[in-house]
Specification:
The chain is of the alpha/beta class and 180 residues long. It contains four helices and five strands.
């Protein structure tokens, strides 16, 4: 079965990768610099308030589309697909590679997007995993959040900081095997 519609010319196709990650009060503690012989304390919250960053990146163009959404479900995924669809330049087609999460299953067709599932249990094939690690390590580690609004603000600022770094999407996410 072909992932692309018959009427799409390969010269007009860009490979995108999509994924989502949870951020919130059950964040991650990470290593930090400290004076030799000291044992610095890192904060770890015990509450369970969180949100999700939905992200899609195109290494060949450097484009990145992200949304902060409250849940990981089909409705939120549809909102993200709509946002990606709106960001695709006229005349281009996006082949979006994503994992097989349950909420990635049922979508109404969009004329400028095709989906291709990454094989199960192979997160190493999705560069978004490196994006999440980079964002969490650089902007979201060892933090406490006051409330849901604080989580949203931190997530949005982290995504915007990531996408503002010139050439970061290409350097972090380019894969030789994902070029058409």
């Amino acid at each position: 079965m072909n992932a692309l519609p018959d009427n799409v010319c390969l010269e007009n196709v860009d490979v995108w990768f999509q994924d989502e990650t949870r951020i919130g009060q059950q964040g991650s503690t990470s290593r930090m610099w400290a004076k030799r012989g000291t044992r610095p304390r890192a904060l770890k919250q015990q509450q369970f308030v969180y949100s999700y960053i939905y992200g899609a990146i195109c290494p060949s163009t450097g484009q990145a589309v992200g949304l902060m959404l409250p849940k990981a479900n089909t409705a939120c995924m549809a909102l993200h697909m709509d946002e990606i669809s709106r960001s695709i330049p006229e005349g281009r087609h996006a082949l979006i590679m994503m994992d097989g999460a349950g909420w990635h299953q049922d979508f109404h067709a969009r004329s400028n997007i095709s989906l291709l599932k990454i094989p199960p249990y192979s997160p190493e094939l999705n560069p978004c995993e490196q994006v999440w690690q980079y964002i969490k390590d650089k902007w979201l580690k060892n933090r406490c959040y006051k409330d849901y609004g604080d989580i949203l603000t931190a997530g949005c600022e982290a995504w915007e900081s990531f996408t503002a770094e010139e050439g970061r999407v290409q350097s972090l996410c380019s894969r030789r095997w994902a070029v058409i």
